[in-house]
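Researcher: Before we compare anything, I want clean individual predictions. No alignment, no superposition, just each chain on its own. First chain goes here; please echo the sequence and then give the C-alpha cells.
Model: Echoing the first chain and its structure:
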Amino acid sequence: VISTEELQSLVGCLGTTLSPLEADALRLYLEGSSYEDMAEELGCDTKTIDNALQRVKRKVVTHQQSRQVLQ
C-alpha cells in the first residue's frame, strides 16, 4: 500500500526521469502487455523492453531510498 503523497511524488519523479521508451514500456507493462507485445508495438527487441523495465525498477528504488533519507 502506498500513500497518496508518496504516489504523487513517485509519479512526478518518474515523469521527469524516464526516457520515452521507459515510459512507454512501463505504461504497457501496467496495462498487462507481454514483453513480446510491447516489443512489437514499440518496434524493438524483447531484450530492449527487459532492459528498459530494469532501468525503471532501478529508478523507482532510487526514488524510494531518497524519500526514506528525507524522512
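Researcher: Okay. Second chain, same rules.
Model: Second chain and its structure:
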Amino acid sequence: MTYELTVLLINALLCLGLPWVYNYGYAKQPGVGGKRLMGNRDDLPERTGVAARGLRAHQNQLENLLPFAIIVLIAHQVNISNMVTMACAALFLIARIAHAGFYLAGITRIPGVNGVRSIAYFVSLFSMLVYTSQLFLG
C-alpha cells in the first residue's frame, strides 16, 4: 500500500472514530443516556457542548474526506506518487487531526493566533489543491 493510501485509510478511521467521541459526550447529557441512544432516538434533546461540536467536526471530516479520497484514488490509478503527493497527504492528515481536535475541545484561539480551527481547515484544503496539481503536472 502506498503512503498516500495509508494516509487515506487513517483519515477514514478518524472519520469512523469521531462518532464514538461525540456520542459518548451526548450520552452523558441530561435526558439522553446510553439506552435512549440505542433506541430510535425520537424526542432526544438537542446536542450541546462536545456532542454538538463533535457532530459538526464529523460532518466537516466527511465533506473533506470524499474529495481527498477521489484525489488519492485517481493519483493511485494513474500511478502518480512523489514527494509532493506524500507531503500533501501528510499535511492533510495533520490538518484534519488538528481541526477535529480543536473542534472537539472548543478551541478557537491559541495565544497569538485567532481562528486556529479555520486555519487547520484551509491548510487541509490547500494540501488537496496542491495534491491535485500533481495530477495535471504528472
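Researcher: What stands out in the second chain?
Model: The chain has a mean pLDDT of 93. Additionally, The longest helix spans residues 49-77.
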